[in-house]
Each structure stands twice: as structure tokens, then as C-alpha cells.
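forwarding from the other thread:

> can someone predict this with glutathione?

sure thing
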Amino acid sequence: MADEKYIIYGSEYSPFSIKVRSYFRYKGIPHEWRPRTQDNLEHFKAHAKLPLVPLVLCPDGSALQDSTPIMEEMEKRYPDASISLEEEALNFLSFLLEEYADEWGNKPMFHYRWWRDIDQIAVAKGIASGVMPNASREEKEQYAANVRKRMVPRLSFVGSSEQTKEGIEASLDEALELLEDHLSNRSFIFGGRPSFADFGLFCQLYGCTQQPTTQVIIEAYSNVASWIDQMLEPEAEGKFEEWDCLKETLTPFLQKQVGGLYLPWAVANAKALFSEEQRFTVTLKGRDFTQDTIKYTGRSFHILKNRFSKVEDRAQLEEILLSSGCLEPLLKESW
Ligand SMILES: N[C@@H](CCC(=O)N[C@@H](CS)C(=O)NCC(=O)O)C(=O)O
């Protein structure tokens, strides 16, 4: 029915909104993509508990926020073309990669967005055009200047600083190299169909294609670039693969990016939250990484560990996680 439609309030410059939009497109869920603009801000505010996009308005009038719970809820309502893998172990890896992407993969995207003048200017201009499409050039320029002024100091929210710049930038290069390899003979991370991992990972990299500096970096990785493109309107091309097919190129990604960066960082953040410290330092690949604690990451890491504790068929999963240095951080209960 025409009125059985979801509304996704989002922004072309919000990776988490793009993630949810791609998901709705893949599932064929009737929806309207509605860029949040000055004109609809009051309507958005009336439904949003948090001032964040995406916001999904359901046909029954209720509202959903936060991309992972949104997708999980939609999976219950629309079970066809499931983005979950049947094998429990692989499905957990898909969630682990999604969590890595949301909490760590977001760092290079955000860092590159607001670090250099050239990127700040390009993105602020794009955001201004999205928020006030019909305004005059002067109004847009003024809005863009304000966005830039507001967002640059927020670099600290993701831990981007002179101290961490090199590590964050190196982490994007490494992630791209590993993904390029992994995507050389498959369409999606787990084979012929997109999973939670694909939606989480691609959207942060799509954000990178909107920034001059990272746009050039990404262009050099043709497999990654075409996967990003495909993920904007994903279509299944086959089946999920078995671990034996995936392991050769997925293990290095788990080892270096998830076990080497995201998990030790998430553990240090959780530990600092537990001891009520405002700030923490963790050594990642030989570099000190200092940032303010993030409550949201603490909560989502806790949910991930809970999810892990509920996996019943553990033998294969524990072996994979052990061999990639991801097991111990997920087992840690207290500090
Ligand atoms: N955990 C949330 C994160 C949402 C989020 O951080 N949204 C950003 C844009 S990507 C936002 O709305 N920032 C404030 C703004 O754009 O006004 C999710 O997965 O949906």
C-alpha cells in the first residue's frame, strides 16, 4: 500500500544514514529517503530522541534510531533476503566487522573529513547544499563556514590529533589493501550476498569518496571502489561462502584491523569508563593513542560481548578468533 512506507531522515554526508538507506534498498522495503533540511527540521525534531541521523519513521508513526538496531528490527519485520549468515560463527564475525566499522572505521572517515582545509571546505559546502538546497550562494557559504567551525573541534571526539594522525591514516591504507585483496574474487565480504559487515564497512568508505584527499586514495583500489559503488544499490549475486573459502584473506583483516586496532582500543575505552576516567591512552601497533572515553562505544562493545557469549556453536568461532588475536578481548569480563 502506498502509505505503508518508511521515511528515512538522513544526509548524503552521513555514513550511518547511507548504511540504512542501502539496507532498505537491498531489502526492497518501501521507503522515502528524506534529506534532513532546514524546512523539515521541526518535523525531524518532533520524532527524534537524539539529534542524530538516520531517523526512521515507521508507517505506524513510531520512530527508530541507531543504524544497527534499525537493521535488526527490520530483519525481523522483513526476513526475506536476510543479511544474516546461517552459520553462527560467520554471523558473529559479520557483527564483529560491523562493530569495528562503526566504531573504528569511522575514525579515518571523520579524521580525513575535518583535518585538511581542502576536505573541510569540500564537505562543509556539500553539507550546506544538502541542508538548504534552495538558499542563495551567500547563505550557503555562511552555513558552510559555520559547519566547518563546529565540526573541526569535534576531531577530538574520534581521537584525531597530531599524536594519532599518522596511526589513523595508516589504518585506512592497511584496511584498503586488505579489503582489495579480499574482494578480488568475491562481490561482498562474505561472498555473493551482502551482510551486516558490508553495510557497516562500505558506508564509512563511501564517506571517504566524498572527500578530495581520500577520494584519490580510494581510487587506487579498484575492487574496493566497485564494491562501494555496488553497495549503494546492492543486489545479491549468489550465496554466502564457507569459512574455508574466506579465511585466507579475511583472517589478515581480522588480525590486523580488528585484533590489532579496534579491540585493544575498545577494551581500553571500556576499562577507562569502568574506572570513571575521562581520557585514556592505549598503545596500538607501537603508537600511543590518546582520546576521551566514549560511552556509546562502551555500550556497543558490551552488546558485542554479550552476543559472543550467547553463541552456542563455539568451537570453530573460538579457533578463528584465537588465530586472529580477537578472542581474549571478547572474553574479558571485568578489569
Ligand atoms: N550510532 C549511530 C550514529 C549516528 C551518527 O553519528 N550520526 C551522525 C551523522 S553520521 C549525526 O547525526 N551527526 C549529527 C548531525 O549530523 O547533526 C547510528 O549507527 O545510527
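The CA atoms of residues 2 and 62 lie 18 Å apart. thats all i got for now
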